[in-house]
């Protein structure tokens, strides 16, 4: 979330050490990201394990 705020992709203001995000802006961002995900972006699948040799099914 902090990366989005610093990059300006999510509007907010830093007051001292705290970030303040307008509620409507946050809700709009969450709704738009949910629509993008539902529109066909792949969900992350299971991670492949590294270091294990693949065996042929012979």
UniProtKB/TrEMBL annotation:
GO terms for molecular function: DNA binding. Pfam families: HTH_17. It comes from the Bacteria. Residues 34-50 have a biased composition (Basic residues). Keywords: DNA-binding. Residues 2-32 form the Helix-turn-helix domain. Residues 32-58 are annotated as: Disordered. This is DNA-binding protein. The lineage of its organism: Bacteria, Bacillati, Bacillota, Clostridia, Eubacteriales.
């Amino acid at each position: 979330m902090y990366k989005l705020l610093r990059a300006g992709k999510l509007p907010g203001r830093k007051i001292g050490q705290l970030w303040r995000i307008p509620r409507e802006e946050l809700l709009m961002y969450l709704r738009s990201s949910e629509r993008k995900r539902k529109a066909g972006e792949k969900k992350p699948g299971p991670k492949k394990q590294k270091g294990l040799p693949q065996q042929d099914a012979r």
